[in-house]
Amino acid sequence: MSSLPDASGTARPAGADGWRRLDIRMLVVHPFRELLRLFPLLLGILVAGSSTGRGGLWGLLGAGIAVTLGVLRWFTTSYRVADERVQVRRGLLRRQLVSVSLDRVRTVDITASPLHRVLGLVRVNVGTGLSDRRREDALRLDGLSAADAYRLRDDVLRRHATPVAAAAAAPDAGTAATGAPAAALAVVAAPAAPEEELAAAPPGWARYGPFTLSGFLTVFFIAGFAWRIVSEAHLDVRRLERLTVGSANLGATPLWLDLIAVPLGVLLVVACASTIGYVLAFWGFRLVRREGGSLQVTRGLISTRATTIEERRLRGVEISEPLLLRLVRGARCIAIATGLRVGRGAERGGSLLLPPAPRAEAVRVAGAVLGTSEPVTAPLLRHGARAHRRRYTRVAIAWVVVTAILVALPRLLPLPPWTWEVSLVLVPVAAALAYDRYRGLGHALTGRFLVTSLGSLVRRRCVLAVDGIIGWNLEESFFQRRAGLATLVATTAAGRQRYAVQDVPLEDALRLADDALPELLAPFLVRGA
């Protein structure tokens, strides 16, 4: 059996001193996955070999190689948690040892696809908060039993929570753990810890699915896949009888009716896809507070997921209201916590505390998570007439640019000369957008929380604990300086890492920063009478 030096420099055989292998049932998962991955290549080998009469032989050889690659992964992959480090080693010809200190662990994601759930297996991904996904995948273990996944997660978190590890960790280093799916972990007879249920999604919340418009991505993906098949197969869609008849009927109807019917049909398809996606992602959603100071979210229908966030890593909450969701009085609640992945969406990053739901419920959950509802419901300070006027000025500049483009297009493209008149329709829309953006603009300092609100297409009310603020940025553009305004940005290691108070008078921005953290700006302020 091959050996590799461990953290202490001593060569030890695989399987000794705490090294564990993946579950042997993964020999079913990985060969099947390799076959799917190499299916186009195997199909090409089969077609190319048919001319020589050996297509079946070459196809079997290719399938054998795929199965062998899957089997080798089990023989060459092992892991352990020892000496305050989590270590994974893999590879046959090119041996690789990945070793990460436990105080750098940010997430422990445990998920299960339908095939995993049938076999009682899960996939574990130990994240270190890095933005490079390749480096994150280095600590992925695909094919652990539910019991081993539970043991690994508890071992990492228990060691991470020791005083020594906590003292060595950075003050804002986050830890979030994702527990195993409920269906897969049903085989583990572990006693349930005392918990307090903060929220549970009833099936009726699926009515908010169409207003998320997440189905646009699904429709575009399916349309692109279908177009790729048509292009690769060299199909002539004009020969398809039903499409030909449908296009002929579409051309026979009045133009105004087509302009109404086609968008409505697209929206109907998108709404259905969004609703289906909502049910698949958030079926059985529960948010509970567990003993020991952690929040746990469980959700999912086919592929299930459970995420555990330590409350000591929580820096605040965010209530997000996209425009369409706001029209039906809906909102989402998102955690502002250190260590959770950002830039991939709250659902994928694990920071979602409540899916699209009634806004009153989102406000209640945010207050329950913070321990007080005052920052979530407190009235906001408006930013004054100059900020109000700036909303309309920016919209007017954008409208002038669009109008200039529409005026120039008929000279470059075969378009009618009245094309620019379309911009006149945008005037009331732009004015309504500017008014709504100012309505959503405001800030407050409530207790030890900084509250900031902004946005129209996606309105966000962010409640950030001032203890989590590590710095201030004062930003002034040329036009802001002329208006006597500035943007105060609170920087933090949590969430989006930048939370802005937009277009506030400069003196108010300095006063707000000084009131929130007096010791941070005191050396740079000159106090007047």
The tally of domains stands at: 3
In the predicted model, the low-confidence regions spanning at least 5 consecutive residues are: 1-14, 131-136, 160-192
Radius of gyration, in Å, reads 28 Å
Arithmetic mean of pLDDT: 77
Largest sheet: 8 strands, mixed
- Derived from helix and strand composition plus strand pairing, the structural class reads alpha+beta
Our measurement of the CA-to-CA distance between the termini, rounded to an integer number of angstroms, reads: 79 Å
Strand tally: 23
User: What is the percentage of strand-forming residues?
Assistant: 25-35%
Oligomer: single chain
Secondary structure tally, helices: 19
The portion of residues assigned to helices is 40-55%
Shape type: globular
Walk me through the structure.
There is one protein chain. Helix content is 43%, strand content 26%. By secondary structure, it is an alpha+beta fold. It has three domains: 17-190, no CATH class; 205-282, no CATH class; 384-524, PH-domain like (Roll). The strands form five sheets. Strands 7, 8, 9, 10, 11, 12, 13 and 14 form an eight-stranded mixed beta sheet that branches. Helix 1 crosses helix 3. The N and C termini lie far apart (79 Å).
Name some characteristics of this structure.
529 residues; alpha+beta; PH-domain like; 3 domains; six-stranded antiparallel β-sheet; globular
Helix-strand blueprint:
Layout lengths: L2 E3 L5 E3 L6 E2 L4 H12 L1 H11 L5 H22 L1 E5 L2 E6 L5 E6 L5 E6 L1 H6 L1 E7 L5 H5 L2 E6 H15 L2 H6 L7 E4 L15 E6 L14 H19 L7 H12 L2 H28 L3 E5 L3 E6 L4 E7 L3 E9 H5 L2 E8 L8 H4 L2 E7 H12 L3 H4 L6 H29 L9 H18 L2 E5 L2 E6 L3 E8 L3 E7 L2 H6 L1 E8 L5 E8 H11 L1 H4 L8
Parallel strand pairs: 7-10
Antiparallel strand pairs: 1-2, 3-4, 4-5, 5-6, 7-8, 7-14, 8-9, 10-14, 11-12, 12-13, 13-14, 15-16, 15-20, 16-17, 18-19, 19-20, 21-22, 22-23
Helix pairs in contact: 1-3, 2-3, 8-10, 15-16
